[in-house]
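seq as requested:
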Amino acid sequence: MKSKEASSRGSSPRRYDSSRRKAQAEERQRRVLEAATKLFLEQGYGATSIDQIARAADVSPQSVYATFENKAGILEGAINLARAGDPRGRGRDLPENIAAHQAPDLRERCDLAAAVARRMYEDSAALIAIVERASAVDPQLADLHDRFRVQRRDSMEQMNAHLPAKAFRKGVTRADALDTMTFLAAAHTYTELVEGLGWTPAHYETWLADALYQVLFAD
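struct tokens:
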């Protein structure tokens, strides 16, 4: 018994140190992403160096490379943090995303999906626009752009996986419906309407909900 108690007492500081190191690493990661976001938006992606990001975040360039590998990895982490609150992009577990996936009423499902899109893009659309603009000349950002599209369509597929084919409008196949959702709910649509044409985010949300419902479900 004595040896077990000693072992238990001895493991506690190690668990504490491990948790503290993890928390410190996550805090440094967040500082890097917040510093990068500010620099990317203020002076542009191309003009921003990893050394500048490291200085602004008060970390070493080596630690930035170790965590993100390259500048495209930093931008991806910044986008994920902005749109999902998680640098790894695990937004599917957010309550609003789960609600959108589970809503039984089709109109409510479209309303919730539009609300999720608005929340994401209010914070991340400007960063995603950097990816879209530079994807034609930067292979790493071209790959990121493609992965974001795949992720968006995959999210739409999951959201509607349990809907029967007859739920969609006559003549609309499931594949066409998913492609349409992927297009309508893209960041560039938000950017064009809100930043380009001066819509409010609330107007965008209402429009997207109506567009999704009318195009895909309404008879």
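The longest helix spans residues 2-43.
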